[in-house]
Prior knowledge:
heterodimer, B: 198 residues, mainly alpha
Amino acid sequence: xxxxxxxxxxxxxxxxxxxxxxxxxxxxxxxxxxxxxxxxxxxxxxxxxxxxxxxxxxxxxxxxxxxxxxxxxxxxxxxxxxxxxxxxxxxxxxxxxxxxxxxxxxxxxxxxxxxxxxxxxxxxxxxxxxxxxxxxxxxxxxxxxxxxxxxxxxxxxxxxxxxxxxxxxxxxxxxxxxxxxxxxxxxxxxxxxxxxxxxxxxxxxxxxxxxxxxxxxxxxxxxxxxxxxxxxxxxxxxxxxxxxxxxxxxxxxxxxxxxxxxxxxx
Amino acid sequence: xxxxxxxxxxxxxxxxxxxxxxxxxxxxxxxxxxxxxxxxxxxxxxxxxxxxxxxxxxxxxxxxxxxxxxxxxxxxxxxxxxxxxxxxxxxxxxxxxxxxxxxxxxxxxxxxxxxxxxxxxxxxxxxxxxxxxxxxxxxxxxxxxxxxxxxxxxxxxxxxxxxxxxxxxxxxxxxxxxxxxxxxxxxxxxxxxxxxxx
Lengths: 266, 198
């Protein structure tokens, strides 16, 4: 037999197909419906059981993941905080020690400078006053000498006048002296107050630098409740610190949940 | 193919399955007919094939066309039927002939047509004797006119392998028909000896 002959026969066979029986469709549809009815409860049970176990497993895993996150994160947070607080107090102590040592010296230098200034001012004020007083004395001496030399007759008049002049000059000298006194007092009043010794810290550096506040007491020494309280306090700190990151994760997760629910409703 | 309909059918909705398979039941019928050459057998195999499609629809992942997947199931049903027949009795086409092979052509026809009909019957019998893989490839490509590529994808083999099987099947058919011609040449069927139509 040749290929062409065979192909012809095959073509004829392909076209020669009897019509499908009239009840063909109805028969298989009835069979399918009957089987669907029989299998429905079993299929639902299996599906429900699978769904329940899956939900349960998801819940268990979620709780475990949350537990690991909280406890592990808190422990890491604690260890990080302890290492940081151990480094900070040492630096603080050094800085405070230096400050405490420097301040008394600074105060003393300030006081010296103030004293020098006041002394210079006093001298500057006193000098002309002293000069004037000296001049006034010298003038009185000269006058008395003149009076002696001039004689008595004239002395009375001259003395009177001389005395008057001397008195005037003395008065003037006294006035000048009093003015000088007033000036001195004014100078003293104007002197800047000596720098009071500032409220410098005591020579001894401040006690116990306020290092990391609320440092958790050593769990070794504290009781169980104290240790638990400290742990939960640290957990709170950790959650606060992690809050921004949690929010960043929560936004897309919430969006995905909303979209999923909308799809399920559709 | 409506994805939503498929999804509903996969979830166990028989009405959705009915809507999905209605266009394909003709294809199932044809495949079963070509495999069995017997109306009753084709109907039984067709029903079994539809039930199997319903049971296994959840496993369909879209790797190939749904038609190819359904063809595969129908072909497997028919091959199971053929194996069962071979087990039950030795291969004998007499009972099948008595049941009638091709009532399609009801006209009396000429002698040439009778000879041709006889040739077709012999060919069907020869096809039934082929190995399963060759038979499957031959029926799907030559009788159902499914492209080689699609057949390869549904069977999970290469296109070259499909062509190779078809060629070997044709060669085997030629041998069988040549032998039968030598034993009983065509044209020996007389009008009054035509097989009764069912």
